Amino acid sequence: MKKRVFISVLISILLIALIYVSDITNIPDSIILFKEEELDINTIFGMSVKTLEVYNNDNAEDIEQTIQTSTPDHPDTEEVVNIGISLFGIPVKEVSVNVIQDIEVIPLGDLIGMKLYTKGVLVVGMSEIYGENNKVYRPYENTGIEEGDTITKINDKDIASTEEMISYINDSKGREIKITYIHNSKVLETNITPVETDTNNYKVGLWVRDTAAGVGTATFYDENTGKIAMLGHGILDIDTEELIDISDGKITNTDIVAIVKAENGKTGRIQGIVEEQKEIGTISKNTYYGVYGELYNENELGIDASKTMKIALRNEIQTGEATLMCALDNGKVEEYAVEIEKIYLNNNSNNKSMLLTIKDERLLEKTGGIVQGMSGSPIIQNGKLIGALTHVLVQNPKQGYAVFSDIMIKQLNNTE
């Protein structure tokens, strides 16, 4: 009986400890906040939050204070605040909070081309191999490699392209090779033996890809940093539907060649030319909340520095009238009337922050509603940038979702 009680108590203690460890681990190492935005750190019994140090502020000595969970008092000037998380008075974690001032950006709406290069090569499929003796082989079986995994090395040599992988496999001459790959964010290793085909080449039965290309809409440009935000959602691999882990990428100009109109139950699209177009910038991040990079030829987009506007905090956004900026004719960005139907103020888990409806008959005449390629179109309300278009409701292409602009500016400034 005593043993059962002891085991029950031990299990309870371990479960409670697991809850605390999980809660502390889930607190990020750095947080970006707007000056008026509330700090919201989920804490449980026994946990407290306190200011440790303040940088870049003339009155640093005067603002050493406890930051109350969900209701902090932010100083009036831009700063970096180090806060400490304590558990029953014992320090357990430090978090860097970057408090940023009102930011002004230039909303764009231009259609752009994007070319992404993966870190390693992405596995997009598998197929049987007919060897030189006409036998069927599946060298990938029992290796643990699956569609969506990324191959980064062969025999400890970095793989940067499909061509490099093919070359290393042929150089093996059928000898077993070691493959390093990433599966569910874990770096793993396995061995595989290439099979010789009747063409005297060696294969392992994996279909891979090292680049992706497409068109989308540029959301805004920060003239002070040269950074640009695009799309409002990440670029997924067409075969695996996983977010592409990129090494880098290129932004190009693009020409619209056709617009396929949307219909109820059928997604439309803007068809543009990406290949052989002029490169105007670089891509550094592909996230679930947009694609980000730097622009080095802003003249190609005809950016007007006089048209800057502030980023709206989400509590400033209202249901009702707004406008959407996009280019449906080559090089011509126009504003179209939309209506914000719903606002999901507390949503930070995905890029469906607002529900909107297209109201402008000019846009509906050209596209039938929201189509592929319009993702990233900036949305303006009361003279401020409130968000960017991200998704269409396929059954009703007049409606779709948008992501908050405050999420995008934080992603743009996040260096992690």
Helix content: 10-25%
Strand content: 35-45%
Number of strands: 28
| Global morphology | globular
Strand order in space, largest sheet: 6-15-16-21-20-17
Mean pLDDT: 81
Largest sheet data: 6 strands, antiparallel, barrel
CATH fold naming of the largest domain: Thrombin, subunit H
Looking at the overall shape, the CATH architecture of the largest domain is Beta Barrel
Using brief descriptors, characterize the structure shown.
3 domains, 416 residues, mainly beta, 6-stranded antiparallel beta barrel, Pdz3 Domain, Thrombin, subunit H, Immunoglobulin-like
Structural description of this entry:
With 416 residues, this protein is mainly beta. The protein has three domains: 26-100, Immunoglobulin-like (Sandwich), CATH 2.60.40; 106-114 and 213-413, Thrombin, subunit H (Beta Barrel), CATH 2.40.10; 128-204, Pdz3 Domain, CATH 2.30.42. The chain is built from four helices and 28 strands. It has helices at 2-25, 162-171, 361-367, 405-413, and strands spanning 30-34, 47-55, 79-87, 90-100, 104-107, 111-126, 129-130, 136-137, 150-154, 157-158, 177-183, 186-192, 195-196, 202-203, 206-222, 227-230, 246-252, 256-260, 269-272, 279-287, 290-295, 309-310, 320-329, 332-343, 354-358, 378-381, 384-392, 399-404. The strands form six sheets. It has a six-stranded antiparallel β-barrel. A six-stranded antiparallel beta barrel has the order 23-24-25-28-27-26. Strand 9 (150-154) and strand 10 form a beta hairpin. The radius of gyration is 26 Å and the shape is globular. The N and C termini lie far apart (52 Å).
